[in-house]
């Protein structure tokens, strides 16, 4: 079975867990699924395979990388009763493990393809809970457009749901890739645990999230992009501040990250609709409108250290793909 899922970028970030085993987030989060960042994954349970196999962007993964996928497949096997190993073939339309949310689209596509291959039919909520076990942000990639993740109290309540907003058709994200999509220095999983364990600012970060979620939801309902963008940028700075203050520091930003932030602040001072957000990597994603996106993209392409710029909009929910309709994704840009 083959499934396709979009990556998503959080506007209110998930950064910290309250349960590592069930991968329960410490707080809720809110995101936008992006049409331009896609993962397509095929899962086949194969008799006689000695171990699960993962082929990622055409390359057979090493045991460590395949380990997280195998653990996830164990959950699917326990739900379905299927007892054999699987071959997983996955392609991304963007650089893997560079802070461009490949684990979000990756585990969302895997959750859908693997459950269908194992003969399970899960609804959106159950799929979202399952995808969360692979990666917290993947719970959101089950749905399209704007998505709200609930922290919940137990496993059953920690899932995502789509959020309607008049902004969904007109919103754009300009993705500025910095440093050619080289693998990130600290994986988000280890870095958020380290922040929670050592950062004196972690508590303050967590305390801001419920208020930020309420503000973001109100902005979405009212179709107020300025309010949403202002909030998203402030929320990203708060998350990064908590990580930067960890001991030792988790610093994702490169000089070009700051150059993009300064450029966006300058464009905003000239009246443009443009707000930054950054995840566990150096890249900057700019929330904007259809009208302003081309100018922003042109300005960011000129900055030193920015190696690729893409304009994208809201993407659809994860879907199972008919084998006759499988597209070949464009190869990801080469890492530098
Ligand atoms: C900065 O979902 O990758 O992108 O649950 O440990 O796999 P795990 O973490 P992951 O963390 C995402 C962190 C983030 C913010 C976000 O997407 O909300």
Question: What does this protein look like?
Answer:
- This protein has eight helices and 14 strands.
- The chain has 336 residues and is α+β, with helices and mostly antiparallel strands.
- The mean pLDDT is 93.
- It binds ligand DP6.
As a percent range, the share of helical residues equals: 25-40%
Tally of contiguous helical segments:
8
The name CATH uses for the topology of the largest domain is Ribosomal Protein S5, domain 2
Q: What can be said about the biggest beta sheet?
A: 8 strands, mixed
SSE topology string: EEEEEEHEHHEEEHHHHEEHEE
Which features does this protein show?
Alpha-Beta Plaits; Ribosomal Protein S5, domain 2; 336 residues; 2 domains; four-stranded antiparallel β-sheet; eight-stranded mixed β-sheet; alpha+beta
